[in-house]
Specification:
This protein is an alpha+beta fold. It contains seven helices and 26 strands. It is globular, with a radius of gyration of 20 Å.
């Protein structure tokens, strides 16, 4: 019933036709503003100039373990975009998008999928890397149009390995060569489809987005009570330094603290799938949030592109508590808008997206006081 990747691409071609009919300046993409040469292009992940070999090869979207026994992560510094979202028990899990990761000695540790991360991965046409999955993720992973590398597959040992310096399940890692071998086994395309136009709208070279009328945002805390995630703005670099568990969050390969030019707080409706606490986080229906850069924050809204189009349903996930339809349009990109309805422009550089359960959005802290304690966040 679910045909291969090409059929989903037909829907994307329809999207292009619709976009051409309804195009506005707010829908400008990286592709539209990129001045590509034979050797370089603008990265879809960061908006920065990169080699065409890197920037026009599909990224991976890898599930990083984020409990305290699994830090530091390795290879996360190579991610141009990181998504953080809650899972069971109030902990968070990370999904990092990487286009340039050849230099990572190891990448991980790798953990299992939840259904809502797959939606984000597919927005970027990324190859999704995970070791295990919840039952609610399986129907979406099983779509032929979802390119994923599963550690529980018959080729799993080709892609992933267990280290002896950590205990299971926090010791699953991979690297560039293993991932490439998995892509070969699965015969996935390494290049973007001709219809792909990028995701975020980035500032052009030399342009600096300052959000002059925004709220002061020297400290940003998304409201996660387990790891007390925190960003602190460093005016000398123009970047946000990432902290969690009361300390700097670093990459285990380099020892460097993680830094980001942009932060997006994306508030999402949610419910529990079942009594085990598996979350159904709605990454499709739209909502509110914040865009933060250069020490300032503004209110935003978010919405799926073409969500109002009726393109049918892939499947319905049934459980004891809910029934969830999955439409083709669920996998189109998420657009972020200012309060005047204009698509926001991000500064070039790395972006961290914090997914916040909407009923806990009030726990988010954005402050001009660098001394404010992370202990104020307690769900």
């Amino acid at each position: 019933m679910f045909q291969e990747r090409g059929i989903f691409m037909n829907f994307r071609k329809i999207s292009m036709i619709l976009a051409a009919m309804t195009a506005t300046a707010g829908l400008m993409t990286v592709q539209a503003m990129a001045e590509e040469t034979g050797d370089t292009c603008k990265s879809y992940l960061t908006g920065e100039t990169v080699s065409t070999e890197i920037g026009r090869t599909r990224p991976i979207a890898l599930m990083f373990n984020n409990i305290i026994d699994a830090v530091p992560q390795y290879g996360i510094e190579n991610c141009g975009v990181v998504y953080e979202a809650p899972v069971e028990g109030g902990i968070t899990r990370l999904m990092g998008l990487m286009e340039d990761y050849k230099d990572s000695a190891r990448i991980g540790s790798v953990r299992s999928s939840r259904n809502y991360y797959i939606y984000f991965a597919r927005e970027w046409d990324a190859i999704y890397c995970h070791f295990g999955q919840s039952v609610y993720a399986e129907p979406i992973l099983n779509l032929e149009s979802t390119n994923n590398l599963s550690g529980l597959s018959d080729y799993g040992e080709t892609v992933y390995y267990r280290s002896d310096d950590r205990v299971s399940p926090h010791n699953v890692f991979t690297d560039y060569d293993r991932i490439q071998a998995g892509i070969d086994v699965c015969d996935y395309d390494r290049s973007f489809p001709d219809t792909y136009e990028g995701h975020f709208k980035f500032a052009q070279d030399g342009e600096n987005i300052t959000l002059d009328n925004g709220q002061d945002a020297i400290v940003v805390m998304p409201g996660y009570s387990y790891n007390h995630a925190r960003f602190e703005y460093d005016a000398s670099t123009g970047l946000y330094n990432r902290f969690q568990y009361g300390d700097a969050q670093i990459d285990g390969n380099t020892g460097s603290q993680l830094t980001y030019k942009n932060i997006i707080l994306q508030n999402c409706a949610w419910q529990n799938f079942d009594a085990n606490g598996y979350l159904s986080i709605d990454t499709v229906s739209g909502g509110t949030g914040k865009y933060i850069t250069n020490g300032k924050a503004i209110d935003i809204t978010w919405a799926k592109e073409y969500q109002d189009q009726d393109w049918g349903t892939y499947l319905t996930i049934d459980s004891e508590y809910c029934s969830i339809p999955v439409k083709q349009t669920d996998f189109t990109v998420t657009r972020y808008y200012d309060m005047d309805g204009n698509e926001i422009t991000l500064n070039q550089g790395k972006t961290w997206v914090s997914v916040v359960q909407d009923t806990y959005a009030g726990d988010t802290v954005i402050s001009d006081d660098i001394t404010i304690s992370s202990d104020v966040v307690d769900n």
